[in-house]
Amino acid sequence: YLSSHSLCPISVLFYHRVADSYPNDWTISRGRFEQHIDFCLENFDVIDLAEVQRRVREQDSCSPAGSLTFDDGYSDNCEYAIPLLIEHDLPCTYFVTTQHVLNQSPFPHDIDNGQALAINTKRQIREMSDAGIEFGCHTRTHCDFSKMFDPNQIRSEIIDAKEELEQLIGKAVRYFAFPFGMPAQLTQVAIEAIHEAGFDGFCSAYGGYNLIGADS
Questions:
Q1: In this structure, are residues 151 and 192 in contact, taking their beta carbons and an 8 Å threshold?
Q2: Which terminus, N or C, of the chain has the lesser number of Cβ atoms within 10 Å?
Q3: pTM of this prediction?
Q4: Burial group, residue 82, by CB count within 10 angstroms (0-12, 13-18, 19+)
Q5: CA-to-CA distance for 136 and 155, rounded, in angstroms?
Q6: Nearest to residue 194, comparing CAs of 207, 177, 182?
Q7: Which residues pair with 202 in a beta bridge?
Q8: 65 CB contacts (<8 Å, ≥6 apart)?
C-alpha cells in the first residue's frame, strides 16, 4: 500500500537532436542517447504525455516514470534516435515547427551557430507518424512569445500550426511545446490560444514541479 506521500514524481525528458556530427549545445551523441534510453528502460515506466496527465490527475504514480519528448524537428533524428525508440516500442512526443518543415528552412539559431542543420521532411514526418510516433506543435516559426504582442499573430503561431500539422499527418495533435520554454514565453495570451485550439496540454522547458490545476 502506498500513501499519497509516497507518490513518485514523473519526469518529462526533452531532446532536440541526436547525432554525432556537428555537436552543439542542443545535440546529444548517439552513444550518450543510447545510454539514456538504457537507463530509462532499467529504471522507469516510459509513458506518453497522456498517461503522465492521467497519473497526475488520478494520483496514480506508484512507480518511477518518465516521458520522452523532442523539440524542433531535426532530420538526423530519423537516422538513429527514432528507430531506436521504435525498436524498443517506447512512446515519445515529437514537437515540430511547421513552417520549417513545410519550407525546409533551417533554424536561425543553427545558422547563427555556423551550421544550417537539416530539418525533417514531410515524408519523414508522415513515416514517423505512421510508425506510431506522436506529433506535437512547436509553433509555426519557432517564435519567442516574450517578444510577440499581436494577439492575432500569437493565435496563428499556435492555432494555425496545429491545423498545418494535422493536415500533414492526418491525425489529431494533442500537445504543444513552447519554443525556448522559459517563464517569460508562457504568456497568458499564448496559454489562452492553446486552450482555444483544443490542445490537451503544453510543455515548458525550465523544469520544476507541476501540480494539478497549475498552468506551468
A1: no
A2: N
A3: 0.93
A4: buried
A5: 16
A6: 177
A7: 176
A8: 8, 10, 11, 44, 45, 46, 47, 51, 52, 55
